[in-house]
Amino acid sequence: MATPSKTPPGADPKQLERTGTVREIGSQAVWSLSSCKPGFGVDQLRDDNLETYWQSDGSQPHLVNIQFRRRTTVKMLCIYADYKSDESYTPSKISVRVGNNFHNLQEIRIYLPVSMQLQV
């Protein structure tokens, strides 16, 4: 999601989108995963249904790659994780990396699962 200014942690991204504070830009990107179990891929990751999810199927690290066709400024990344429902699959660390291609990515932020609304 792109946003013109900082938003408070814990703000509802859907409400922010309805009020015009942020704009969802994920549909402008190509999404890929390091691995996934059948029926638990990109479509489930992005479908806005809290009952569906991505489930990896391989060794770590588990990666979600989001590639935009042109240079794009991203100021907020919202990730829903439900630790109470399944702590074994909740990430212990999220690394946000940026670059011009997959081979020159640089880590710009590391987040712990306390707050999954990330200001980038």
TrEMBL record:
Protein's name according to its UniProt entry: Anaphase-promoting complex subunit 10
Domain of life from the UniProt record: Eukaryota
Keywords: Cell cycle, Cell division, Mitosis, Ubl conjugation pathway
Assigned protein family: Belongs to the APC10 family.
Gene Ontology cellular component annotations, sorted alphabetically: anaphase-promoting complex
SMART domains assigned: APC10 (SM01337)
Any Gene Ontology biological process: protein K11-linked ubiquitination
Organism of provenance: Acanthochromis polyacanthus
Residues annotated as domain DOC: 1-120
InterPro entries linked to this entry: APC10/Doc1 (IPR016901), APC_su10/DOC_dom (IPR004939), Galactose-bd-like_sf (IPR008979)
